[in-house]
Every structure is written in C-alpha cells, then in structure tokens.
C-alpha cells in the first residue's frame, strides 16, 4: 500500500484527480477539506482526522476508518459499504442517503449525529452510541445489533 503525504493528496485533488484507491492516509489531518466525489476504495484512513471534511458522493467502500475523527463530517450520498468504523468518532456527523451495508460499527460514536436514509444491511453494530442522534429511515432490523446506546430523544424511524 502506497503512503501518501497530505500535500500530495491536496495537490492531485486540486488538479482534478479523484481516484486514490488502495493508498495509506492513516493518521493524516484531513480536517475541513472538500473531498467531494473522491474515490478512496480500499484506502487506509485509520486514525485520520476528518473533522468537518466534506465527503459528498465519495466512494469509501472497504475503507479502514477505525479510530478516525469524523466529527461534523458531511457524508451525503456516500458509499461506506464494508468499511471499518470501529471506535470512530462520528459525533455531529451529517450522514444522508449513505450505504453502510456490511460495515463494522463497533464502539462507534454517532452521538448527536444526523442519519437519514442510511442502509445498514448486515452491518455489525456493537456498543455503538446513538445518544441524542436523529435517525430517519434507518432500518436496524437487517443489521446485526448486539448493543446500542441511545437517549429518549433518539427514536429510530
């Protein structure tokens, strides 16, 4: 897996490149970047800071996002199928029309997040925090739910 520096990613993205599959971006600070339409298929983003990052229409299939920070990230029309979000921070994230099928959401923090029209078929949900989250059209019946945390304000619909 090829290791990329932040400057290289920014430069290539600015020049119009969107396909960055199977690269290592672990631990990088990508906070606040606009990465709309990016293809990160199979990318390692473990421990990356994606706080406030715009990832609309991004392909994040098979991406390792374990221990990453997605605080206030925008994930509209995003493919997160088979991705690992174990212990990721998705606090206040905006997740709309997103595919999370067969993903790992073990000890993931979705507190105060907004999730609408999110598919979670076959997704592993274990000790996941949905405290004060808004869940609209998120059908948990096809997910493998072991344990979730939520408040009375969080009502999955």
From TrEMBL:
It comes from the Bacteria. PANTHER family: BTB_POZ DOMAIN-CONTAINING PROTEIN KCTD9. This is Pentapeptide repeat.
